[in-house]
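hiii so um. not sure if this is the right channel but i have a protein structure encoded as tokens and i wanna go backwards to a sequence. like what aa goes where. can anyone help
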């Protein structure tokens, strides 16, 4: 014999299971929605980061181009001044150094070796840094006299 309460208990348990199942389905939907929102935020953040990096790269390229154009304009202005004969000596030196640097970039610069210029040793009264100027002076016929030493700053023999 079954008690009259049994079907109600089964129905109650079944209703409870259905309610629990619906509750879990709702939680699953909520978690899916939150996961999608998180993924969308990550995608948007990555897009913003990519756009920012692209803008930064474009800005760097634009700045490089502007800098090159400015240097070219300065070179043209210096060249114009040089043609007119109104060039500042400092500007001339900078222009020559820049031209040399561009022309010989990547190559090793070699200083004049006095031995190759016909000297067995450094001219008397000079150190290794003054050899080139001392050699030039000797070629010009300005020999060192007794008691003189080579002055690198003045680029001549002094007492």
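sure thing!! here u go:
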């Amino acid at each position: 014999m079954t008690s009259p309460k049994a079907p109600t208990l089964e129905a109650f348990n079944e209703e409870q299971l259905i309610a629990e199942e619906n509750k879990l389905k709702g939680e699953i939907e909520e978690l899916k929605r939150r996961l999608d929102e998180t993924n969308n935020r990550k995608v948007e953040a990555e897009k913003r980061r990519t756009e920012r990096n692209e803008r930064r790269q474009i800005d760097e390229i634009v700045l490089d181009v502007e800098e090159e154009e400015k240097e070219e304009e300065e070179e043209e202005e210096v060249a114009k001044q040089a043609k007119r004969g109104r060039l500042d000596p400092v500007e001339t030196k900078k222009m020559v150094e820049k031209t040399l640097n561009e022309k010989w970039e990547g190559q090793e610069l070699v200083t004049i070796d006095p031995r190759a210029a016909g000297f067995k040793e450094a001219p008397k009264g000079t150190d290794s840094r003054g050899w080139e100027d001392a050699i030039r002076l000797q070629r010009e016929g300005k020999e060192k006299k007794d008691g003189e030493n080579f002055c690198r700053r003045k680029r001549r023999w002094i007492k």
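oh and The chain has two domains: 9-95, 110-159.
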